[in-house]
Design a protein that fits this description.
By secondary structure, the chain is α/β, with parallel strands linked by helices. 36% of the residues lie in helices and 18% in strands. The chain contains 20 helices and 21 strands. The longest helix is centred in the middle third of the chain and has 29 residues.
């Protein structure tokens, strides 16, 4: 008899579910993909239903259900923090209490009620879930583990070791001292949404100068040589207030926070660059300390800060570790996977025999077979052309070569925040105007945002200063010198957002202004259809790289179903949609312009 374990994360952000059968991942998905509510934090009922349906199970047939943190300890932290800051923070306290007292404290009861399940329900600490999600799917028999995020119950940063089927956390940094919350404070101050837009700060950083690094290190964070730190709470408001920063923070940097959607100035760019450099400095020091303490060759990472791919790239290049593996769903969604694996290996003591990365390229979500796509097209009376498997890659590559923007919907949906070639928007990286076109006309987002290159694994060194698998877009590398476009002696180096106007390499649409790129390597064993497409593009153009960005617009989750994909396709200036083996041309579709314009006005802010 097989053992089935369901892992759940919920009630903060990025709710998700994951199902294991005898320790192997059957399915995993975030709730937002089904409800179409970005970063949905509610109970992941639809994600659970998908996981159970994939395995042909009912909830009553589950052997164990796990929850990714310990709500009572988190509630204890909340109460102790409010008491220590009282009477400050009373508004925040009363805003938080109803949801805690109604739902968050009673997680066991909620699970039993939602699933009609009366079997064992197990809990582990938040950072143990992160650690389990980092180590157990990794290709390493033993490794050091580093987890960094905003906050779990009390811990904000931990390190430990994994050996065989056992993991142990050795030390932690506790709330309110948090590298993740420091970064979020600058996300808030520069006018972006906390817990959603930290990656925008990372993308904005190369436009700025590290003007404020010394001020941050002097006033905000006491960073030690071993990577431990303390934050000066005199400048922050997140512990008990409704904002991330306070008036003293405003005075330190000379103005109140930027209002969202207003003009970005050089100051915001310099702030972004500065906090990014401080974060990289802290993470490198942490990595070196963990190496010294554990004596392990390899490092596994998870937690929201592990999505900082610029810092990850530096750890790979500059730290003493020989190799690095990062959980692709590093944020709270990955906690559902972590608790399930923790129960299997740590609680049930089941052996572990790593045979490489066991995340299955993170393609763990729903899949629509050809007959299901055909049924959708027939039901909606849509015009499409069916092509064979042999024709699909070459015809799509031809469209991209011709400058068309293509929505690409294939196979199982990705688990985690990145589109990896299953729910992607694709374009030609050689075109200087493609970055702007995708940002403004397709994604409806800020012009400064970079796009990621997908490159054939065997060709990655031809384009990038990287010789390492990067299947999950979690490493930033620089473009090789021979592909860069230098500024001539007669030109003046552009500043700020004017850097966007200059081609920085032979693949300008995926080259950031500092000649960096968030690289995705694609191997045929992991992702046959996507690999074949890039290979066909290389055969046609000589370029083994294409643009890959997530199939969504700002403020909306990545598409899940053919209906989601078609709706996004029709509401943007995408040229073609590829649903499985079906090619849809925008010119053949009926798009009421009035409805399209109304939708644009109602587009949620990200």
């Amino acid at each position: 008899m097989s053992t089935y374990i369901l892992g759940i994360s919920a009630y903060y952000h990025d709710s998700a579910a994951c199902l294991l059968r005898d320790g192997h991942i059957v399915a995993a998905a975030q709730e937002e993909r089904f409800t179409r509510k970005k970063q949905d934090s509610g109970f992941p009922a639809e994600a659970i239903a998908y996981c159970l349906e994939t395995a042909g199970l009912t909830a009553q047939e589950l052997d164990y259900v796990g929850f990714y943190d310990k709500p009572l300890i988190k509630f204890e932290r909340l109460l102790e923090t409010y008491v220590s800051f009282a009477p400050k923070g009373v508004r925040s306290f009363w805003a938080a209490m109803p949801q805690w007292l109604k739902t968050k404290v009673w997680v066991r009861d909620e699970i039993q009620r939602e699933l009609d399940y009366d079997g064992p329900i197990l809990f582990c600490e938040h950072h143990e879930s992160h650690a389990a999600s980092a180590f157990y799917p990794s290709p390493f028999e033993d490794a050091a583990i580093l987890t960094i995020d905003g906050v779990g119950e009390w811990a904000t940063t931990t390190y430990g070791m994994g050996e065989g089927n056992h993991l142990k956390l050795l030390a932690e940094i506790g709330f309110p001292h948090s590298l993740g919350l420091l970064y979020s404070a600058f996300t808030y101050y520069t006018g972006f949404r906390v817990n959603s837009a930290e990656y925008k700060v990372m993308g904005l950083a190369p436009y700025g100068e590290p003007t404020y690094v010394d001020l941050i290190l002097d006033k905000l964070i006491d960073l030690k040589p071993d990577g431990s730190f303390r934050l000066n709470q005199d400048y922050f408001n997140y512990a008990a207030g409704l904002t991330m920063t306070n008036k003293r923070f405003d005075r330190l940097f000379g103005s109140p926070p930027r209002q969202g959607e207003t003009h970005l100035t050089q100051k915001e760019m310099d702030l972004a660059r500065s906090v990014q450099e401080v974060t990289e400095m802290a993470m490198l020091r942490m990595a070196e300390h963990v190496y010294a303490q554990t004596k392990k060759k390899y490092l596994c990472m998870a937690g929201g800060v592990a999505l900082n791919c610029v810092a990850n790239g530096r750890i790979l290049r500059e730290s003493s570790f020989e190799d690095l593996w990062i959980q692709p769903a590093s944020g709270d969604s990955g906690g559902a996977l972590g608790i399930a694996l923790y129960i299997w290996h740590q609680y049930l003591q089941k052996p572990r025999s790593p045979q490489g990365d066991s995340m299955q390229a993170s393609l763990l979500g729903p899949c629509w077979e050809s007959h299901q796509i055909e049924h959708f097209l027939d039901r909606e009376d849509l015009t499409a052309t069916r092509v064979s498997d042999d024709q699909l890659a070459d015809q799509t590559a031809r469209l991209i070569e011709d400058g068309q923007v293509v929505g690409w919907f294939q196979g199982r949906m990705e688990f985690g925040p990145r589109a990896l070639g299953a729910r992607s928007i694709l374009g030609d990286p050689r075109r200087q105007d493609m970055q702007s076109k995708l940002n403004v006309k397709i994604k409806f987002r800020e012009s400064f945002r970079p796009f990621a290159p997908s490159v054939l694994r065997e060709k990655v060194q031809d384009y990038f200063e990287l010789d390492h698998d990067s299947p999950y877009m979690l490493l930033v590398s620089h473009i090789n010198q021979e592909h860069r476009t230098p500024v001539t002696e007669t030109e003046t180096a552009p500043q700020g957002l004017d850097k966007l106007k200059v081609a920085h390499s032979s693949i300008p649409a995926v080259t950031h202004v500092d000649h960096s790129a968030r690289v995705q390597t694609v191997s045929r064993d992991d992702h046959k259809q996507y690999y074949d497409l890039i290979k066909a593009f290389e055969n046609r153009t000589g370029c083994a790289v294409i643009i890959n960005t997530s199939f969504n617009v700002r403020g909306e989750p990545i598409v899940c179903s053919p209906q989601d994909a078609y709706r996004c396709f029709m509401r943007t200036d995408m040229d073609y949609l590829i649903l499985g083996n079906y090619i849809l041309n925008k010119e053949d579709q009926d798009r009421p312009q009035e409805a399209y314009e109304q939708w644009r006005k109602e587009l949620p802010l990200d």
